[in-house]
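To the team - flavin mononucleotide complex, inputs and output below.
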Amino acid sequence: MVSKLRILIAYLSYSGNTEEVAAYIGDYLDREGFTIEWHRIGIDVLNDLAYYDLIFLGTFTWERGATPDEVKDFVLEVGYKPENMVVFGTGDTQFGGDDLFCKAADKLAHFYKSNYPALKIEQSPRGSQEKKIDQWLEGVLNNAKSNA
Ligand SMILES: Cc1cc2nc3c(=O)[nH]c(=O)nc-3n(C[C@H](O)[C@H](O)[C@H](O)COP(=O)(O)O)c2cc1C
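Output:
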């Protein structure tokens, strides 16, 4: 039963954009009847990820396509590659165009061999990009249902 899925949203955000996407995802899943747990990377104590059916991992991208150190530490702390990671990210094409846009999210999705392509949002998700998140989440949930 998909509504019984145990879902974690883990994210890192400095200036709030990735947090906004995380909150948007949380609200969407809440409306769909899911119960969400949260992990603020670098702040909260990490629970055993084996407990969760679906793990959303959110990050922004830093200097020249880099993954933030806190997210690298998170990856090391997790210590294995859960098969059910879904990655989302925010970035800004002004910092190197399409090649470097949300590169950290792409790299993480590749590293975890995620079943879903990373969601990539330019800065704040509010406005026209909300539709992009809705469509991405629809795909994520359909895929999760078919694997349940
Ligand atoms: C110094 C610096 C370097 C950045 N480099 C990139 C980059 O290489 N690629 C990218 O897509 N965004 C880059 N960004 C943009 C941030 O990833 C973007 O503003 C993001 O939404 C910030 O997330 P947050 O508000 O959750 O902290 C950079 C931002 C700063 C300040």
